[in-house]
């Protein structure tokens, strides 16, 4: 049930909060780039470095999105 609530909150923020939407779009872009690297037949050391860098950036954005969701959820309760 909590997962459904989180998805509803995320959808609400995507529709109503420009900052959240931009962060979510960048998060999805990093995911796409990571998947492209992982799909390569031969991954170079540079590719591995870039993949690691992208994963860190993606995680940072995920943390930002979670914080925004927590704030939005708390303000609904208050």
Strand content: under 5%
Instruction: Please state the overall shape, judged from the principal axes of the Cα atoms.
Output: elongated
Number of helices: 3
Helix-strand sequence: HHH
What is the number of beta strands? Answer: 0
The radius of gyration is 15 Å
Q: Regions with pLDDT < 50 over 5+ consecutive residues?
A: none
User: Percent of residues in helical segments?
Assistant: over 70%
Query: Averaging pLDDT over every residue, what do you get?
Result: 94
Main sheet summary: none
- How far is it from the N-terminal to the C-terminal residue, by CA? 21 Å
Strand pairing plus helix content: what structural class? mainly alpha
* Domain module count: 1
Provide the descriptors you would attach to this structure in a database record.
single chain; 78 residues; mainly alpha; 3 helices; 90% helix; 0% strand; elongated
Walk me through the structure.
The chain is mostly helical and 78 residues long. The chain has one domain. The longest helix is centred in the C-terminal third of the chain and has 33 residues. The two termini are 21 Å apart. 4% of the residues are buried. The mean pLDDT is 94.
Put the structure in a nutshell.
With 78 residues, the chain is mainly α. It has helices at 2-16, 18-39, 45-77. It has one domain.
Chart the SSEs and their pairings.
Blueprint: H1 2-16, H2 18-39, H3 45-77
């Amino acid at each position: 049930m909590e997962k459904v609530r989180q998805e509803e909150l995320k959808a609400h923020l995507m529709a109503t909060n420009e900052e959240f939407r931009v962060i979510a779009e960048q998060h999805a872009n990093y995911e796409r780039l990571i998947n492209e690297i992982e799909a390569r037949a031969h991954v170079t050391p540079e590719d591995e470095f870039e993949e690691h860098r992208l994963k860190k950036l993606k995680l940072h954005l995920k943390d930002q999105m979670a914080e925004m969701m927590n704030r939005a959820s708390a303000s609904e309760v208050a």
